[in-house]
Amino acid sequence: MTEAIDRVGELAGEGLRALSGAKTESDLLEVKGRYFGKKGAVSAILSGISSLSVEERKRVGGAANEARTRLEAAFEARLAEIREKDRIAREGAETVDVTLPGRALDAGHRHPISRTMADIVSIFGRLGFSVRGGPEIEKDYYNFEALNIPKDHPARDMQDTFYMDWPEGDLVLRTHTSPIQIRTMEGMRPPVRVIAPGTVYRCDSDITHSPMFHQVEGFAVDTDVTMSDLKGLLTEFCRMMFGKDLPLRFRPSYFPFTEPSAEVDIRCVICGGSGCRVCGNSGWLEILGSGMIDPAVFGFVGYDPERYTGFAFGMGVERIAMLRHGVNDIRLFFENDIRFLSQF
Ligand code: PHE
User: Fold this and answer.
1) Do residues 226 and 314 share a domain?
2) Angle at 198 between CA 192 and CA 204, to 5 degrees
3) Which ligand 1 atom lies nearest to the CA of residue 158?
4) Of the residues 225, 254, 255, 290, which should be mutated to test ligand 1's pocket, given the most ligand atoms within 8 Å of the CB?
5) How many whole angstroms from 177 Cα to the centroid of ligand 1?
6) Count of beta carbons in the 10 Å neighbourhood of residue 193
7) What are the pLDDT digits (tens) for 22-62?
8) Domain membership flag for residue 254
9) Can you give the residue range of the structural domain that contains 155?
């Protein structure tokens, strides 16, 4: 029996030495298995004590259990030491290079349409125009009626839109920014010089038409406004917008709310006039509709047509943005593909 107790003492001593000599977690586990794991030497002694007397069993068993407790405590302590050493070594290896540039967040930027619209407004701002807006859901009266387009007028077909039945009467998604002319003139006396950007809607969809698009309306009313004022203004606008002197062409046209009316073309910014795919070989690109405000419109807002004259124009923002950036499909602006948008 004393033999068994001596053996326990020896095992405890060996085990403790082996634990303190272990360098890694797996060394430690190996020592545990050998000395005090389920199949280790201490367990073997415990399972061999059944042949001893009750008295002896108590003493040997007590000694073995005590040895195991000490070994386990030593194991935990050494495990903590090894882990701490590993952590320090790992952190020492993961050095931070403070001279590396940081990872910058991608800053967003304005949509090319919003930017073009803001640029147009800012140019006219510098030319003495102030900014006005109006509702996108507009009364039939402002979108058509007061612009000299009665209910049965064929011009309504050119601007087919989305109609809504509302308790207060006919409402439409506005088809152009021209209703802002009426709203503005109802609320102020000449001289008027206003620029009015906004979203407009039409039942239209192909590579140059989107059911939702943007316009910038401009108009001026005073006692002696002439068509040459309009021409001078638009020439100056194009110079500021495209950064060069571009010849303008006024082509006779028709709008119910202007007389005379003209569509304005600029010399093709792509080919310079020699003819290309973008201008359909004509050398010219249409950018806006314009004209002298029809006296009938003045009748709707209570301006005296004998005393006042005015011009108005409405340009398509997408058109200008397409010319400016060489984009050939209007739908790209609204697909919100970040690969397209991040180019601007
Ligand atoms: N509102 C017209 C359109 O959308 C453009 C225009 C505006 C024409 C002002 C003349 C004067 O087609």
Assistant:
1) yes
2) 125
3) 12
4) 255
5) 8
6) 18
7) 899 899 999 999 988 888 888 888 888 888 888 888 888 88
8) yes
9) 112-341
